[in-house]
């Protein structure tokens, strides 16, 4: 399975020039964040970093360091983790040599030999020792690639010291691959002649001779060589390989010696015999195109062979228990987070369920646009219109519905859903999965399914466009702001929609009771608003049982009233289907006609369907004969004797019409919470069948209060109409832009094909938007102000969360980073202590079971590292309890729990997948956890000892083995059953003695050197964070067993 590079963090040593710089570029092009190590040339490093950041929109950091200095190698890894937020790939490209006389054992001094050894061998050991903890912690492990040389395979090269140490590094690579797999993949790239600044030192004559002797008559391509690093990083089936990139000898058919095949740690060797004299004269290797070569194979490892020397090699399994007692050679086990079922997917319904969902949508979706006949004409005209004007406005309404609703939304935008979720912000979220335009919470990385297309899969213009967008900080910020503003503008208009719809319906009372006071109308409106929001907790499925029939009856009223008015007044209004009527109206009225677009857009606010068409026709037919009826056309145009039933059904329909925006509000808030743009608040899923049906209590009550205030302050639909529409048109324009980008980068259309449709629709959006902007002084400023304030709060929260992620990245280490163990002299007991980097203080073991809470399961809980490092104590048995919420009603018990073993003895990781209807935190939680660990131990580890004694040794190992070693192997062979029994006994004893639930409370402080604007923003973020975070008292756990551990981080 390919290893996706997008979003990976890569450290490249000696990366500022030559091959290293090109490798940096290749990984950046694939969406990786890059840490560039340089030794002395800071200008080259800065220039490269600037270019990579601008071209590929990735994080790039430069680090000064010397591969010959042990402390520098460790610091490179730590600084990379700190600055990039993690480490996934190390390209060990640094090395050292000096040109020396071939075969002269005295030409290099002892100091130069030591420098070769440190730079070419020990630097790899030091880098790997520093990187291994974070590699072990990564869900996908890590990749370590060594820049070696053909000189490491023959007796040649720039110097004897270089050749010898490169050979040693290759053998070290094989040990790495064997000892650290499968979590870490280690390979080496052996380039041939590269004409970098260093390669040019061979001189023109030597380079020419080497090219002449090459099979391809050319030097090794830098670009080809750099691509090999990318391919090795992506290839999950290779480790322990020496990949030679060169063509420095003739390809003779007789030169094939043998091919050895296996899954990893193998050799595919196609090489000529070494021409030592030529190599000595050249000073470098001239070996042919050997690829994937590996160490020799002992007889006992060969299962079968043929006359062609094609053989399978059995790799010896690493003992599961053998290293447990002696230390932490074995890393934390894979927590099993890469489960395809964890990703959210769109729900697909057929048959009766599809019909039932369509019926529900009638009540939720079609109500908004269906009630537009209540207020469109009254918001468009300020005085009785002429017949010609009413037909012109009707034509605008018809063609706006066709273009904006049918063509734009139904035929195009509804197809740009993000696994079933819709809206502008959802489209932005979709783009962020296909483009490198946003950061994500590292703890939840495995919950996001990235689908970024390879560069070659896009149209050429699309490639350039994506590169520009990803590399431009301004463009990325603009897309982010557009996505957030689209959400907040819908929220702001969400305060107006219920007020507009309900007030428009209640105003119908004035038709039958002209003397009714304005206060009574407002009072009735507010009462209906309270009832509407009070029933939201029932959920959409239950609400639509009543709402859908109301809308169906309402649409029927419009149809019947329409037929009546068309028959009795003016059927010629059908000429409005001619778009020329719309253009004629706009030309005739000039600027005033353009301003009326701000009223006609109310016909398609909601952009859901065309059912309101007939209602608009029947009102136009009536107003064309009775112009004074424009102020309340629906009720004035009602047939005799139907006013009271029309009033009742209109009020009910207006209530239902508000449901669309309320439902959308809940959906949008859920989306922004997923991408960390607002604090987590309670979200209730109201349906076990339809996963997207939500209810958010606090948002519901705040909307109710805001809607009542809006209805009371504006007090009529004309005033509300002036405030309404600006945000709607901004959102439709944002939708046009976002979906156009989705067409290019998700659907992979050419930008040239997308441009003309985008321009056409954008012009239509712009016409309406420019018209409604004239309403800003008349009341629209209110919604814009609300939207702007909410957007600033969302962006502030997101900024603070990103700073928090960077601060927490320093603690993303496996348990073996903090704790080491050793066996006592008697061999019967294991003692624990902190690792050398933390002072090697002994750790006290407290009796009992400690359950450490954490999110997602990506990393070791920060509370554990803080607990151990500061208290130098740990529970006897430890369980990391990770909660992993999935967007489904329930997770089957058999799939709910994933257990893995950690490097610390008697320490386990339990990842709990759960749906929104599952109850996980219960008073008997400890019992459930212990039962899961017990079942896992019995299931996976209770294996007969005879099955564990199949370990074999090579002939060479047997010859070198001692009696003690043989006895040790025999003891280890019977260890599993004894270890399982011991672990089960410890688990039972710890559980019986005492259970502690240990929960972290992370406090943050701002670094002293932070500038003032940044300090103000972070202070606001921390204030919001401290007042919105979940309280420990909300957990349904026994109070006497809960401990909250506070700790401090700087941001």
From TrEMBL:
<dbReference type="InterPro" id="IPR053951">
    <property type="entry name" value="K_trans_N"/>
</dbReference>
<feature type="domain" description="K+ potassium transporter integral membrane">
    <location>
        <begin position="618"/>
        <end position="820"/>
    </location>
</feature>
<dbReference type="Pfam" id="PF22776">
    <property type="entry name" value="K_trans_C"/>
</dbReference>
<dbReference type="InterPro" id="IPR003855">
    <property type="entry name" value="K+_transporter"/>
</dbReference>
<feature type="transmembrane region" description="Helical">
    <location>
        <begin position="694"/>
        <end position="714"/>
    </location>
</feature>
<dbReference type="InterPro" id="IPR053952">
    <property type="entry name" value="K_trans_C"/>
</dbReference>
<keyword id="KW-0813">Transport</keyword>
<dbReference type="Pfam" id="PF13561">
    <property type="entry name" value="adh_short_C2"/>
</dbReference>
<keyword id="KW-0633">Potassium transport</keyword>
<keyword id="KW-0630">Potassium</keyword>
<feature type="transmembrane region" description="Helical">
    <location>
        <begin position="516"/>
        <end position="535"/>
    </location>
</feature>
<feature type="domain" description="K+ potassium transporter C-terminal">
    <location>
        <begin position="848"/>
        <end position="1051"/>
    </location>
</feature>
<feature type="transmembrane region" description="Helical">
    <location>
        <begin position="643"/>
        <end position="669"/>
    </location>
</feature>
<feature type="domain" description="K+ potassium transporter integral membrane">
    <location>
        <begin position="357"/>
        <end position="617"/>
    </location>
</feature>
<dbReference type="InterPro" id="IPR002347">
    <property type="entry name" value="SDR_fam"/>
</dbReference>
<dbReference type="GO" id="GO:0016020">
    <property type="term" value="C:membrane"/>
</dbReference>
<dbReference type="GO" id="GO:0015079">
    <property type="term" value="F:potassium ion transmembrane transporter activity"/>
</dbReference>
<dbReference type="Pfam" id="PF02705">
    <property type="entry name" value="K_trans"/>
</dbReference>
<feature type="transmembrane region" description="Helical">
    <location>
        <begin position="354"/>
        <end position="378"/>
    </location>
</feature>
<keyword id="KW-0812">Transmembrane</keyword>
<feature type="transmembrane region" description="Helical">
    <location>
        <begin position="720"/>
        <end position="745"/>
    </location>
</feature>
<feature type="transmembrane region" description="Helical">
    <location>
        <begin position="390"/>
        <end position="411"/>
    </location>
</feature>
<feature type="transmembrane region" description="Helical">
    <location>
        <begin position="752"/>
        <end position="773"/>
    </location>
</feature>
<keyword id="KW-1133">Transmembrane helix</keyword>
<keyword id="KW-0521">NADP</keyword>
<protein>
    <submittedName>
        <fullName>Potassium transporter 20</fullName>
    </submittedName>
</protein>
<feature type="transmembrane region" description="Helical">
    <location>
        <begin position="474"/>
        <end position="496"/>
    </location>
</feature>
<feature type="transmembrane region" description="Helical">
    <location>
        <begin position="779"/>
        <end position="797"/>
    </location>
</feature>
<keyword id="KW-0406">Ion transport</keyword>
<dbReference type="InterPro" id="IPR036291">
    <property type="entry name" value="NAD(P)-bd_dom_sf"/>
</dbReference>
<feature type="region of interest" description="Disordered">
    <location>
        <begin position="947"/>
        <end position="977"/>
    </location>
</feature>
<feature type="transmembrane region" description="Helical">
    <location>
        <begin position="547"/>
        <end position="567"/>
    </location>
</feature>
<dbReference type="InterPro" id="IPR020904">
    <property type="entry name" value="Sc_DH/Rdtase_CS"/>
</dbReference>
<keyword id="KW-0472">Membrane</keyword>
<feature type="compositionally biased region" description="Basic and acidic residues">
    <location>
        <begin position="968"/>
        <end position="977"/>
    </location>
</feature>
């Amino acid at each position: 399975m390919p290893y996706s590079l997008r979003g990976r963090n890569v450290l490249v040593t000696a990366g500022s020039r030559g091959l290293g710089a090109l490798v940096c570029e290749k990984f950046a092009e694939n969406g990786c964040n890059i840490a560039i190590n340089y030794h002395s040339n800071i200008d080259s490093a800065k220039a490269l970093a600037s270019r990579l950041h601008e071209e590929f929109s990735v994080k790039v950091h430069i680090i000064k360091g010397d591969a010959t200095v042990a402390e520098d190698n460790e610091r490179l890894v730590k600084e990379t983790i700190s600055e990039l937020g993690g480490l996934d790939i190390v390209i060990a490209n640094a090395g050292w040599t000096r040109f020396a006389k071939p075969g002269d054992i005295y030409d290099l001094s002892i100091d130069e030999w030591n420098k070769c050894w440190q730079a070419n061998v020990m630097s790899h050991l030091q880098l790997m020792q520093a990187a291994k903890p974070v590699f072990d912690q990564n869900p996908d492990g890590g990749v370590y690639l060594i820049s070696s040389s053909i000189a490491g395979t023959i007796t040649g090269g720039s110097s004897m010291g270089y050749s010898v140490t490169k050979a040693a590094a290759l053998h070290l690579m094989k040990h790495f691959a064997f000892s650290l797999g499968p979590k870490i993949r280690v390979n080496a790239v052996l380039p041939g002649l590269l004409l970098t600044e260093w390669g040019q030192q061979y001189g023109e004559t030597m380079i020419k001779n080497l090219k002449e002797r090459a099979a391809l008559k050319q030097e090794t391509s830098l670009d080809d060589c750099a691509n090999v690093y990318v391919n090795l990083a992506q290839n999950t089936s290779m480790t322990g390989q020496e990949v030679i990139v060169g063509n420095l000898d003739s390809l003779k058919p007789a030169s094939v010696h043998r091919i050895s095949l296996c899954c990893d740690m193998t050799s595919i060797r196609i090489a000529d015999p070494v021409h030592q004299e030529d190599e000595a004269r050249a000073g470098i290797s001239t070996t042919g195109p050997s690829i994937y070569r590996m160490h020799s194979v002992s007889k006992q490892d060969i299962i079968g062979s043929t006359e062609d020397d094609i053989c399978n090699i059995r790799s010896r399994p690493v003992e599961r228990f053998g290293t447990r007692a002696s230390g932490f050679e074995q890393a934390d086990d894979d927590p099993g987070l890469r489960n395809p079922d964890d990703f959210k997917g769109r729900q697909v319904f057929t048959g009766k369920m599809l019909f039932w969902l369509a019926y529900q949508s009638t009540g939720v979706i079609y109500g908004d646009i269906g009630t537009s006949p209540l207020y469109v004409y009254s918001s468009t005209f300020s005085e009785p219109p002429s017949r010609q004007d009413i037909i012109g406005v009707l034509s605008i309404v018809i063609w706006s519905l066709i273009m904006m609703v049918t063509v734009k939304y139904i035929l195009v935008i509804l197809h740009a859903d993000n696994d079933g979720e819709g809206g502008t912000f959802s489209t932005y979220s979709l783009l962020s999965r296909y483009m490198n335009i946003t950061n994500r919470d590292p703890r939840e990385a495995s919950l996001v399914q990235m689908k970024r297309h390879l560069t070659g899969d896009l149209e050429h213009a699309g490639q350039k466009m994506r590169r520009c967008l990803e590399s431009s900080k301004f463009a990325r910020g603009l897309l982010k702001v557009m996505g957030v503003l689209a959400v907040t503008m819908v929220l702001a208009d969400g305060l107006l929609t219920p007020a507009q719809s309900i007030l428009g319906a209640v105003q119908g009372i004035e038709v039958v009771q002209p003397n009714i006071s304005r206060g009574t109308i407002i009072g009735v409106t507010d009462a209906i608003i309270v009832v509407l929001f009070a029933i939201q907790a029932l959920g959409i499925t239950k609400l639509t049982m009543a709402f859908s029939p109301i809308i169906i009856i309402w649409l029927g009223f419009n149809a019947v009233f329409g037929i009546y008015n068309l028959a009795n007044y003016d059927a010629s209004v059908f000429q409005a289907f001619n778009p020329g009527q719309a253009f004629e109206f706009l030309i005739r009225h000039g600027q005033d006609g353009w301003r009326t677009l701000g009223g006609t857009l109310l016909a398609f606010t909601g952009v859901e369907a065309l059912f309101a068409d007939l209602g608009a026709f029947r009102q136009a037919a009536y107003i064309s004969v009775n112009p004074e009826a424009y102020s309340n056309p629906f009720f004035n145009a009602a047939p005799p004797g139907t006013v009271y039933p029309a009033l009742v059904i209109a009020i009910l329909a207006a209530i239902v019409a508000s449901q669309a925006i309320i439902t959308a509000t809940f959906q949008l808030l859920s989306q922004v919470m997923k991408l960390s743009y607002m604090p987590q608040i309670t979200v209730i899923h109201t349906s076990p069948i339809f996963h997207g049906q939500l209810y958010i209590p606090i948002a519901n009550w705040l909307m109710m209060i805001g809607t009542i205030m809006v209805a009371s302050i504006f007090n009529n639909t004309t005033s509300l109409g002036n405030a309404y529409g600006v945000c709607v048109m901004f959102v439709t324009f944002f939708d046009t832009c976002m979906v156009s980008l989705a067409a290019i980068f998700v659907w992979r259309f050419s930008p040239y094909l997308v441009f003309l449709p985008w321009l056409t629709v954008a012009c239509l959006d712009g016409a309406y938007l420019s018209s409604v902007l004239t309403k800003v002084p008349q009341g629209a400023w209110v919604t814009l102000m609300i939207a702007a304030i909410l957007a600033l709060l969302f962006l502030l929260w997101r900024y603070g969360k990103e700073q928090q992620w960077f601060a927490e990245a320093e603690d993303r280490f496996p348990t073996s980073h903090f704790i080491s163990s050793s066996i006592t002299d008697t061999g019967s007991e294991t003692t624990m202590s902190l690792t050398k980097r933390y002072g090697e203080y002994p750790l006290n073991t407290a009796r009992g079971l400690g359950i450490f809470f954490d999110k997602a399961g990506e990393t070791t809980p920060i509370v554990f590292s803080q607990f151990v490092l500061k208290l130098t104590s740990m529970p006897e048995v430890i369980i990391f309890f990770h909660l992993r919420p999935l967007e489904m009603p329930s997770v089957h018990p058999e799939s709910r729990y994933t257990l893995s073993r950690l490097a610390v003895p008697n320490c386990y990781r339990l990842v709990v997948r759960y749906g929104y209807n599952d109850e996980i935190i219960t008073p008997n939680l400890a019992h459930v956890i212990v039962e899961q660990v017990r079942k896992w131990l019995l299931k996976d580890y209770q294996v007969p000892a005879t099955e564990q004694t199949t370990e074999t040794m090579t002939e060479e190992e047997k010859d070198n083995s001692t009696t003690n070693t043989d006895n040790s192997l025999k003891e280890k062979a019977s260890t599993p059953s004894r270890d399982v029994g011991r672990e089960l006994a410890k688990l039972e004893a710890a559980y019986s003695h005492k259970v502690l639930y240990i929960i972290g409370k992370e406090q943050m402080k701002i670094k002293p050197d932070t500038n003032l604007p940044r300090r103000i923003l972070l202070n606001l973020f921390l204030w919001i964070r401290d007042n919105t975070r979940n309280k420990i008292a909300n957990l349904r756990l026994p109070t006497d067993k809960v401990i909250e551990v506070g700790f401090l981080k700087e941001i």
